[in-house]
């Protein structure tokens, strides 16, 4: 399962990741956290320091970037620890979507990129929660996902 996922979805995930990268302002010294990274095979596309979290031990075994086993609902980092927080086609899998989004906001300082699977039955709910908790600066619709580029709101 872990092996076949990457084969099946590599190109489509890379397309999303390139859009995310091109819509962020990234400095080499920036720290980027990928929440729900899975294997994180695309993390070399980001020209900065990357870190990944995912609850799946199996997927993390194949993740060659710095990582921790953790879920979005309990991110094991201090407030404002990362300049950039991204999540690529993972939010629909969170057990508690609002808690996960609040945690991402807590550990992020400024830039966020959240890519949401359009065909998820939770799409509307996720979109509403992103609008509640973030300042959206750009919405990009690609083939499979809608990508929200966002900043932190004060609340
Ligand atoms: C469709 S995969 C996407 C993986 C990777 N971002 C990619 O684009 O290849 C969804 C990921 O969400 C992760 N996931 C499931 N529940 C999660 C949670 N509560 N917090 C964070 N990630 C979670 C899964 O383990 C899986 O790696």
What distinguishing features does this structure have?
4 helices, about 160 residues, single chain, alpha/beta, 7 strands, seven-stranded mixed beta sheet, Rossmann fold, binds S-adenosylmethionine, about 30% helix
Characterize the structure shown.
By secondary structure, the protein is an alpha/beta fold. It has one domain: 3-Layer(aba) Sandwich (Rossmann fold). The chain is about 30% helix and about 30% strand. The protein has four helices and seven strands; from the N terminus they run αββαββαβαββ. A seven-stranded mixed beta sheet has the order 3-2-1-4-5-7-6, with helices on both faces. A hairpin with a 3-residue loop joins β6 (about 135-140) and β7 (about 145-150). α3 (about 95-105) packs parallel to α4. The protein starts with a helix and ends with a strand. The model has no long low-confidence stretch (mean pLDDT about 95). S-adenosylmethionine (SAM) binds near residues 35, 38, 73 and 88.
Write the layout of secondary structure elements.
Elements: H1 2-22, E1 31-35, E2 49-54, H2 57-61, E3 67-69, E4 82-88, H3 97-107, E5 108-117, H4 123-133, E6 134-141, E7 145-152
Parallel strand pairs: 1-2, 1-4, 2-3, 4-5
Antiparallel strand pairs: 5-7, 6-7
This protein binds S-adenosylmethionine (SAM).
- What percent of residues adopt helix (DSSP H or I)? 25-40%
Bound molecules: S-adenosylmethionine
CATH evolutionary superfamily = Vaccinia Virus protein VP39
Unreliable residue runs: none
What is CATH's topology name?
A: Rossmann fold
- Number of H/I helices: 4
Tell me the strand order in the biggest sheet: 3-2-1-4-5-7-6
> How would a textbook summarize the main sheet?
7 strands, mixed
| Beta-strand content estimate | 25-35%
What are the secondary-structure elements, in order, as H or E? Answer: HEEHEEHEHEE
Mean pLDDT: 95
The end-to-end distance, rounded to whole angstroms, is 40 Å
CATH architecture: 3-Layer(aba) Sandwich
Provide the domain count. 1
The number of E-state strands comes to: 7
Principal-axis shape equals: globular
Assigned CATH class: Alpha Beta
Radius of gyration in whole Å, from Cα? Answer: 14 Å
Structural class: alpha/beta
């Amino acid at each position: 399962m872990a092996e076949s996922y990457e084969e099946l979805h590599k190109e489509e995930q890379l397309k999303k990741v390139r859009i995310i990268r091109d819509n962020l302002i990234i400095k080499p010294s920036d720290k980027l956290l990928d929440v729900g990274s899975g294997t994180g095979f695309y993390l070399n596309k980001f020209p900065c320091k990357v870190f990944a979290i995912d609850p799946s031990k199996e997927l993390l075994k194949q993740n060659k970037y710095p990582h921790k086993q953790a879920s979005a609902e309990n991110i094991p980092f201090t407030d404002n620890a990362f300049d950039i927080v991204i999540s690529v086609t993972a939010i629909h899998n969170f057990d508690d979507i609002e808690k996960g989004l609040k945690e991402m906001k807590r550990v992020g300082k400024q830039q966020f990129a959240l890519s949401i699977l359009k065909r998820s039955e939770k799409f509307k709910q996720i979109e509403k929660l992103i609008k509640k908790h973030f300042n959206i600066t750009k919405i990009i619709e690609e083939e499979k996902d809608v990508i929200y580029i966002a900043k932190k709101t004060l609340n």
